[in-house]
């Protein structure tokens, strides 16, 4: 029979001594939690996910499971537990850079053929980067030694890296194919109230909306300018059709910014865009080649 001491001790236990504070990072660990769409299992899933573990939630109701997953991801948007592509790359790097790279690579033969029979500067590739490329990425845009994130970084830094990657892809693509009549245009669309902020909490979204976000159609205007404006075509002339070099030949590198203007890009991205023989760091070329390796299995 349960003693009165045991009964009371379990009814009114002492403070927990083994909590999330005692748990180390759980990168690479996998946990399956049954009944985790609510209650104790959900709380456990939150703790383990906050420590970057990969979590599988087994539950009776599909809709409750999805709602639990989305609430956990919202709470711990910095976790790397679920933020990987099917191929195992960091999700933003995979989506924003590797996927885009492959898609563009597959379309390039068609772009080149089309450019031969189209009016000057009308065939363009628009690379949707972000102010995060300059504001949130490490020096040089991407750290070639840490693209697998063995040294863990904040989610915003990873976003910045992926957006710097877009800019570097634009530069490298321009160098490779500008001379064949395809214009390569990097841009920052502006801060738009889109689904991009899906992983942010409601309060953060509310504050962002009040302070910096504009209706998404404004972002469409930035893209419209980059894709169709004759001014962009004029900027590309004089140096093949490599858009980001100014027509004055001074090597000043620019991007299209909200809502359809030109602006100089920051110094370390300029250096990253140039080869070592041009006085740069050669990061854009290295990043291009890294992407080439990643997409090799997809002819
Ligand atoms: N919004 C901004 O403030 C802002 C600022 C600077 C730069 N940008 C850049 O602008 C681009 C478009 O952003 P947005 O604001 O329009 O974003 P969004 O509302 O989040 O997404 C637009 C599209 O991306 C797709 N997508 C999202 N995650 C994906 C994934 N993992 N795999 C495949 N497709 C995925 C979405 O498909 P689903 O509907 O299926 O998810 C949707 O079709 C992005 O490259 C972003 O980095 C946006």
From TrEMBL:
InterPro entries recorded: NAD(P)-bd_dom_sf, SDR_fam
Protein name per Swiss-Prot or TrEMBL: NAD(P)-binding protein
Pfam families in alphabetical order: adh_short (PF00106)
Keywords recorded for this protein, A-Z: Oxidoreductase
Source species, domain of life: Eukaryota
Single GO MF annotation: oxidoreductase activity
């Amino acid at each position: 029979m349960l003693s009165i001491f045991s009964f009371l001790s379990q009814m009114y236990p002492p403070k927990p001594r083994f909590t999330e504070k005692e748990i180390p990072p759980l990168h690479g660990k996998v946990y399956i939690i049954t009944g985790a769409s609510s209650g104790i299992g959900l709380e456990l899933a939150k703790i383990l996910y906050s420590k970057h573990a990969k979590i599988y939630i087994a539950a009776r109701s599909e809709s409750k499971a999805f709602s639990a997953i989305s609430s956990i991801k919202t709470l711990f948007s910095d976790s790397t537990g679920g933020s990987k592509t099917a191929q195992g790359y960091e999700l933003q790097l995979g989506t924003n850079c590797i996927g885009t790279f492959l898609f563009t690579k597959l379309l390039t033969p068609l772009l080149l053929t089309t450019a031969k029979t189209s009016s000057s500067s009308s065939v363009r590739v628009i690379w949707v980067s972000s102010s995060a490329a300059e504001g949130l990425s490490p020096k040089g845009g991407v750290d070639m030694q840490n693209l697998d994130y063995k040294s863990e970084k904040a989610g915003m830094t990873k976003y910045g890296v992926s957006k710097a990657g877009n800019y570097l892809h634009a530069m490298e693509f321009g160098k490779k194919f500008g001379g064949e009549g395809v214009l390569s245009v990097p841009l920052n669309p502006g801060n738009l109230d889109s689904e991009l902020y899906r992983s942010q909490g409601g309060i953060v979204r509310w504050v962002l909306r009040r302070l910096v976000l504009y209706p998404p159609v404004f972002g469409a205007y930035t893209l419209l300018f980059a894709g169709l404006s004759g001014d962009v075509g004029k900027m590309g002339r004089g140096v093949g059709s490599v858009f980001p070099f100014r027509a004055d030949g001074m090597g000043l590198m620019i991007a299209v910014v909200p809502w359809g203007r030109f602006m100089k890009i920051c110094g370390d991205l300029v250096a990253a865009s140039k080869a070592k023989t041009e006085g740069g760091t050669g990061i854009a070329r290295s990043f291009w080649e890294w992407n080439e390796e990643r997409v090799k299995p997809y002819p």
